[in-house]
Amino acid sequence: MPNIDEDSDRRIHERVDLQRMMFLRVGEATFMGLLHDVSHSGAKFVFDETGAADGQVSTGDDGVIVVDGIGEVPGSVARFNKDSVVFTFSISERAQEEVVANIMIAQNEMDLKPVS
Asked: 37: left (phi > 0), else alpha (psi -120 to 50), else beta?
């Protein structure tokens, strides 16, 4: 398989922008934040507080994202900075497609709810 750089990967896997509450568990630590966007290969997690994971999360760490209303998805930290993590899913391609579809369905249901 050819080596795919990050930019070409973004073209292959369309990213869907959203704002959905989620949690990131890495080791014994759990962080709250927003699912900023998702693709078939992973997701971007934005921490509630900048610097919340300093010293607790590193690139390559295994973890789990817990998406509100969807469930848990295992993976690893592909990139980390003070305000966000890019998380790569460690599940089959079929399961990745299902996760993305379920997140999009849940997001659409939220968008359709009337504001009271």
From this structure: beta
